[in-house]
Design goal:
Elements (H helix, E strand, L loop, with lengths): L1 H34 L10 H8 L5 H7 L5 E2 L10 E4 L17 H7 L2 H17 L2 E4 L23 H16 L4 E2 L23 H8 L1 H8 L5 E4 L3 E3 L2 E2 L4 H11 L5 E4 L3 H7 L7 H11 L9 H11 L5 H17 L22 H13 L13
Parallel strand pairs: 2-3, 3-4, 5-8
Antiparallel strand pairs: 1-2, 6-7
Helix pairs in contact: 2-13, 3-12, 3-13, 5-6, 5-14, 6-8, 10-11, 11-12
Length: 381
């Protein structure tokens, strides 16, 4: 019996040897695939790289990609780079000693598209030096009420001038392998009594004739990489950050936009605290996700509200994945996986800042944008 048992066990051992041999032959290839994943291969098409990378992320890691933390954070475990941003309205504003240009309202007074383009290009050069690759600018709101406290950030009251200035600035900025996020989409420049974040009460004709053309040109002509939704309300009693009409029907279906949608800071949180269209943070996060807010400036997504929305069945993780794709796609397009730079921006005074040439450019914009008034008939006080 001992001999029989031993021979049976021996036969079983030999019978499974091919399986072990097969496993041994496969394991090196699995290890190689893990060490050299498809998403890290720059020769692979971007969509294939996104598809390969996305399932590897945990939900928490996905949330870091769609929550603003001076931009989109890195994920060292997967070699996902950070993608940092600045405000950039009239300088590389997250900096020490960068070139300070006149505000946009003064740039508009030059009526010089080439000059404004030079400002956009220099802003990009100084931003990239600090490991920044994007900017939340320019402001493309058409001002209809000078009581509004952000008038100086705009190119003024003319829809045509705002459009042309915006396109010139964005094209020049993005020519340095950067991405621009024009704002605030849309109607933000026609607030109620000088106060934004309210129901604009604008007709569709006014919106499309006055407030949308500059954004459409920024997307279709200048190919802006992102867009920021405004605080206010235009359609169906829904804030712009929760509006499928603005962020899906017009932006993506009509205009074919494929980039990121950034919330204005705290916008989705206002659903609960200011606009009172939801009862819980999870509901607020769900509305932002369903509208397509793919980069939240605020604490809602990362506070646990987004995860709670998934747990409660208000949204699915697949719907969150659709937003994460936009961030990853932008990082791949910018070449950040091949040249990641620092995960944190450089706040030091850099050689690229405030050069004699850039200071001369700032002075030229200031001179060309000056407006002289003659006080005839004691019209002015």
């Amino acid at each position: 019996m001992i001999t029989l048992f031993s021979s049976v066990r021996l036969r079983k051992a030999f019978s499974i040897l091919p399986a072990f041999a097969l496993a041994a032959s496969v394991m090196p290839s699995l290890r190689a695939a893990d060490e050299n994943p498809k998403y890290l291969d720059p020769k692979v098409p971007i969509e294939e790289r996104v598809n390969d990378l996305l399932p590897r992320l945990t939900l928490d890691e996905k949330i870091t990609q769609i929550t603003d933390d001076w931009g989109s954070r890195d994920v060292p475990r997967l070699k996902i780079p950070a993608m940092l941003k600045t405000e950039g309205l009239h300088s590389q504003s997250y900096a020490t000693g960068s070139t300070i240009f006149p505000h946009a309202i003064a740039m508009a007074s030059t009526f010089d598209l080439n000059l404004v383009g030079q400002v956009g290009k220099q802003t990009a050069i100084e931003s990239k030096a600090a490991d920044i690759r994007g900017t939340w600018s320019p402001v493309l709101d058409v001002v209809r009420d000078v009581r509004w406290g952000r008038t100086e950030e705009t190119y003024g009251e003319s829809p045509y001038l705002v459009e042309r200035m915006g396109v010139a600035w964005i094209k020049a900025f993005q020519s340095e392998d950067m991405f621009a996020v024009p704002k605030h989409f849309a109607g933000h420049g026609q607030p109620v009594g000088g106060r934004d974040s309210n129901d604009y009460g604008l007709s569709e004709r006014t919106m499309r004739n006055v407030h949308l053309p500059a954004f459409r040109a920024a997307i279709e002509e200048a190919k802006a990489g992102g867009i920021m939704a405004a605080y206010g309300i235009w359609t169906d009693g829904l804030p712009d950050n929760a509006s499928p009409v603005l962020l899906q029907e017009i932006l993506r279906q009509e205009w074919g936009f494929e980039g990121m949608v950034v919330s204005d800071c705290g916008g989705p949180e206002h659903f609960l605290k200011k606009h009172s269209i939801v009862q819980t943070p999870a509901e607020a996060a769900a509305k932002a996700v369903l509208a397509g807010v793919s980069m939240e400036c605020g604490s809602l997504y990362k506070s646990g509200a987004l995860a709670a929305a998934i747990e409660q069945g208000l949204i699915t993780e697949a719907q969150v994945d659709d937003l994460v794709r936009l961030t990853l796609r932008t990082k791949f397009r910018l070449g950040l996986f091949e040249n990641p730079g620092s995960p944190k921006m450089n706040w030091a005074k850099l050689p690229e800042y405030d050069t004699p040439e850039s200071r001369a450019l700032a002075r030229k914009v200031s001179v060309e944008g000056s407006v002289l008034l003659r006080n005839e008939g004691n019209l002015l006080p």
